[in-house]
Amino acid sequence: MEKIPILKMGRFLLVTIQVDMHDRLAMTLQEDLTARIVQDNAKGVLIDISSLEIVDSFIGRMLGGIASMSRMLDAETVVVGMQPAVAITIVELGLSLAGVRTALNVEKGMEILHSLAPAGEEAPGHDSQT
Amino acid sequence: MILKHESVEIRSSEDVVKVRQQARTLAVAGGFSLVDQTRIVTAASELARNVSVYGGSGTATLSLVSENTRTGLRLVFEDQGPGIPDIEVALKDGYSTGSGLGLGLSGARRLMNDFEITSAPGKGTKVSVTRWK
Fold it and tell me: What is the CATH number of the domain that holds B21?
C-alpha cells in the first residue's frame, strides 16, 4: 500500500510530502504519525510541504489535525517550506490553520523544535535515544 | 470559443488528484501566473471532492476558453447526487452536511472570478467556475 515515509531524527520525526496526496493517503499519514510519536517517544514532528503545489481544505484540516493530535501526545509540530502561492491561496480559501506552527525552511523548523523540546527533558530511566 | 477541453470522470479520491493535475496542465497551457494556477487547482480540488463526497460520482469538464480578447479557464462539475436543498446556506463559510470544514463551495467561489451553481433536491448539482487571466 502507498505510504508517505516517516523518518526518525533523534527525538524528532521528519516527514517530507512529495506526492500529490489523495484524501485517503492524507488520513493514513495522520494515523501513522500519531502511532510513531508514541512508539518512538518523539518530542517533535517536522512536516516539509515545499513540494506541495496546493493546500486545500482537506490537507489543511489534516495539518491542523496532526498538530492537535501530536500536542495531546506531548509532541510539537512545525510545518515548513510553504510556497508563497500556497500561502496566498490558503488565506483566500478561508483556512486559518490555527494552531499550526510554521517556519520558512527545514533548518528554521528544526531550530524551533529544539527550542520547544530541549534535550535532556526525558524522564530518568526512560531513554529511547539511538 | 473553446481552445482546449478535458473531461475527467470522478468516482474516488484518486480521481480528485486527476482533476487537479488536468487543471494544472490547462492553467499552464493558458499562461496563467503561478498564483492563479494555484487558485485554479485549489478550487478544482475542492469542487471535485464535493462531487466525490456528496454527489457520489460525476464529471469534471475543464476548458480553456476565449471571449473577446480575454482567456479564461472554466471548470464545470456535474453530479447526479441528492442535490442541495438550500444553496444560500450551502454557500456559507463553515456550513457542511459532511465531515469537512465547509469551505469547499465558498472557498472555490472566492478563488475564482465567476461562479454559478444550479441544484435541486433529487436533481443533482452543477457548479461552473471561471478564472480570467
Answer: 3.30.565.10
Phi, psi of B128 (to 5 degrees): -125, 125
In this structure, are residues B72 and B32 in contact, taking their beta carbons and an 8 Å threshold?
A: no
Give the minimum alpha-carbon distance from B73 to chain A in angstroms, rounded to a whole number. Answer: 17
Contact by Cβ (8 Å): B41, B24: yes
Integer Cα distance of A27 and A34 in angstroms: 11
Shortest Cα–Cα distance, B54 to chain A (Å)? 15
In chain A, the number of structural domains is 1
Interface of B with A in 53-92 (CB under 8 A): none
Residue B126 to residues A8, A112, B65: CA-CA distances in angstroms?
46, 46, 19
Q: How far apart are CA A78 and CA A109, in angstroms?
A: 6
Domain interval for residue A108: 6-116
What is the total count of domains within chain B?
1
* Domain assignment present for A78: yes
Query: Could you report the per-residue pLDDT of B12-53, keeping only the tens digit for each?
Result: 999 999 999 999 999 999 999 999 999 999 999 999 999 999
Full domain range(s) for residue B21: 2-132
Cβ distance B106 to A53 less than 8 Å, yes or no, reads: no
What are phi and psi for residue B82, nearest 5 degrees?
-70, -15
Residue A121 lies in a domain: no
CB contact under 8 Å between A92 and B39, yes or no, is yes
Q: Between the CA of residue B99 and those of A51, A107, B50, B61, what are the distances in Å?
A: 27, 35, 11, 26
- Residues of B within 8 A of A83 (CB-CB) are 38
Q: Model ipTM?
A: 0.91
Q: What is the pTM of this model?
A: 0.92
